[in-house]
Amino acid sequence: MTLVDPRFAAELVMTTGKTIPFDDVGCLATYVATAGVRRERIASLWVNDFAQPDSMLDAALAVFLVSDSLHTPMDYGLVALRPGRAADSVRTALGGKLLSWEQVVRLVAERPGR
Known about the structure:
Elements (H helix, E strand, L loop, with lengths): L9 E5 L4 E4 L2 H9 L8 E8 L2 E7 L4 E4 L11 E4 L3 H10 L2 E3 L1 H10 L4
Antiparallel strand pairs: 1-2, 1-3, 3-4, 5-6, 5-7
């Protein structure tokens, strides 16, 4: 898969070592939420830091900004950020709400048409 914009990228690493790339954090969350893979087969989930796209974060340790002002590759309007001042600054600039990974998975599971 060719990633259009690394600021929005994510990946799932299976216990077998296989890596599945996603071009939108929302796609990864949807894949996990809709049982695209059994949870016991997931070794780790990684997301690119929107503010530093060359830096990946463990999804469980990241915070996620959901905002109508974000135009992501698959239109989920979600980006991952390192918790702290940088995340607060991006939220202040773009508006929206900061969520945990668990909240993101619930959010995408509840969205119609996904």
